[in-house]
Amino acid sequence: MARKRDFGRVRQLASGRWQARYRGADGVDRPAPHTFARKKDATDWLADKQTELRRGDWIDPDRARVPFGEFADRWLVERDLAATTRQRYEGILRLHLKPTFGTTGIADIREADIRTWRKGRRDAGLGPASVAKAYRLLHAIMATAVDDGLLKRNPCRIKGASQETSEERRALSVDQVLKLADAIQPRYRCVVLLAAFTSLRFGELAALRKPELDLVAGEVHVLRSQAELDGGELLVKAPKSRAGLRVVAIPSAILPELRSHMEWFSERSPAGLVFVGPKGGKLLRRNFRRLWRKALDAAELADQDVHFHDLRHTGNQLAATTGATTKELMARMGHSSMRAALIYQHATRDRDRKIADGLSTQIKSSRQGRPAETESESNGHAAGMNEDAG
Length: 390
What we know:
Layout: E1 3-4, E2 9-12, E3 18-23, E4 29-31, H1 39-55, H2 68-77, H3 83-101, H4 111-123, H5 128-147, H6 174-183, H7 189-198, H8 202-206, E5 213-214, E6 219-222, E7 225-228, E8 234-237, E9 246-249, H9 255-264, H10 285-298, H11 309-320, H12 326-333, H13 340-346, H14 349-367, H15 385-389
């Protein structure tokens, strides 16, 4: 028999266990999600519910039963995301989140479940960076569930789980970069040189147009990037952040080769693409891979697992040897972070020119078969910079 209380009701069932019922903020009469061994446990549970209602913290259990997969799909639809970001999130959901949480109610996902899922992903051989990306997406989706009043708090509470800890990629030497440039088809020689010595991404190189390559001032203006979606669609878009819009100084040692490239291989129109495919179309990553592998073989680097993106890492490392500061390096590479505005404001083009001159010294030294001159810590410049700049 149910017993009347100021709030809610409790009754003992035929099994001897106790049931609690209450009326929610929506006026619907609801039972507790489980029964209780003792009457006190049932009344304590009701007291907690009454406190939630008084504070406005009550969660509608019917709404919170929405499956994670359904909520995540709606989360994606409601966000204004770049096509590449949307595609990446869809892949993470399909491969890493929905198989575990797809049919589970949002409110039923516990901290322990997330710890188990994360360990399972890592035990299955998924890289630390990929696990961190999947965790960040899960955290963002569950944070929205909290904002929508479906959860009291986010169950993604693993300290440090969102931080990527990818293994450091090895940087190539200047000599190895030049060997790769020699080994690849001539029309792609300057793709290798610019990637290594200006730290441009493949997509930025593929989207680069002739007016943006200033061979008089020795600068490349990065205004856009080309992205390739899974279905083969090409997108040319502005960088994701202000830091991606940048002007990068080019080492003077490679300017003659860039001039030759512009004459022989770039599109003929004044605003044409700097780099094109072998048949005059767009430069595509999927077609470039075959040429890249052949160049690695010819340069005797095939056994070192060198990725094209390692050229960008190489450029960063080489620029650091010229005495560039962290802010200058991040500005040169177009890094976007919480400090992006500070980096963008304080990195000067004059200092960037000195970075490029320092790279030029290293390139010339490698070509002449002598070691690059080192920079003294007291003045922050390479000994050969003044000669190059003159």
